[in-house]
Amino acid sequence: MADGTESNAQPQVQLQEAPATPRPRGFAAMTPEERRALGSKGGKTAHQRGTANKFTPETASVAGRRPHVNGTAHKWTSEEAREAGRKGGSALRRRRQGESS
Predict the structure, then answer these.
(1) Where are the domains positioned within the chain?
(2) CB 68 within 8 A of CB 74
């Protein structure tokens, strides 16, 4: 330094220990009721602004055709189709049995 005394003292850096488990943030920190209220508010706001997606049968039909036109639609094998049909049929039977009980 200018007065002839030199200081070799380094500034002390204090390390803070990180918490063992991170605290939840955002939606994870909310109760289910708070999440439901916030989600409902967002949907209502979108409808008020006119930016909400409103599917008509025509727009739904166009959206359903798009993967086939693009070539990205799933190609079912006969075994996959049989298995899907079996699952759907059994789900319908279970649902109907639940209603009649």
Answers:
(1) 76-101
(2) no
